[in-house]
Amino acid sequence: MCIFCEIIEGNIPSKKVYEDDKLLAILDIAQATRGHTLVLPKKHFDNILDIDKDNLENLISTTQDLAKKIVNNLKAEGCNILNNCGEVSGQSVHHIHFHILPRYNNDDLDIKFPNHDYDLDEILKEIDG
Ligand code: 5GP
Ligand code: ZN
User: Fold this and answer.
1) What's the pTM?
2) pLDDT average per 10 residues of sequence, the chain (129 residues)
């Protein structure tokens, strides 16, 4: 059983932000910003590529509700909603989850994208297949 399934089963303690019959939201044990929250379905799916649409829609919809509440009540200025898919992307727990990262003007979270000079038309052709 994966670590999040263990948390859902109550075998590992967690700080619950929200729970219903389908979803659980908990504070991340490693707080990247104050209020860093993980939202996960109670049913195990590895990642965003293998979850079905109904469960995904429910997950993202509740993530939005919780993000609004967290940003508002913790007096954050905004947030990042983050999903890692696959080890290469940084996913370490292979049970789909969205990170809600409340953002503050003075926080030290640094998410930066590099800027590569790829051929965009070539990429579009390849995506189209
Ligand atoms: P990922 O890297 O898969 O996108 O995110 C996994 C997250 O789960 C990490 O931010 C990590 O800190 C968090 N995490 C790992 N184990 C536990 C745990 O036992 N309890 C809680 N609350 N968070 C955990
Ligand atoms: Zn699981």
Assistant:
1) 0.98
2) 98 98 98 98 98 98 98 98 98 98 98 97 98
94 alpha carbon – ligand 2 mean position (Å): 7
| Residues contacting ligand 1 via CB (< 6 Å) | 3, 12, 14, 26-30, 38, 84, 90-93
Minimum CA distance residue for ligand 1 atom 12 = 30
* 80: nearest Cα among 30, 27, 13, 35: 35
Q: How far apart are CA 95 and CA 115, in angstroms?
A: 30
Q: What angle do CA 59, 87, 49 make, to 5 degrees?
A: 40
Locate tokens 């953002």: which residue? Answer: 103
Are the C-beta atoms of residues 5 and 42 closer than 8 Å to each other?
Answer: no
Q: Ligand 1, from 1, 24, 29: best to mutate by most atoms within 8 Å of Cβ?
A: 29
Query: Residue 116 catalytic?
Result: no
Q: Which domains does the chain have, with CATH numbers?
A: 3-128 (3.30.428.10)
| Per annotation, catalytic residue among 36, 97, 99, 116 | 97
Question: What are the structure tokens assigned to 55, written together?
Answer: 């469960």
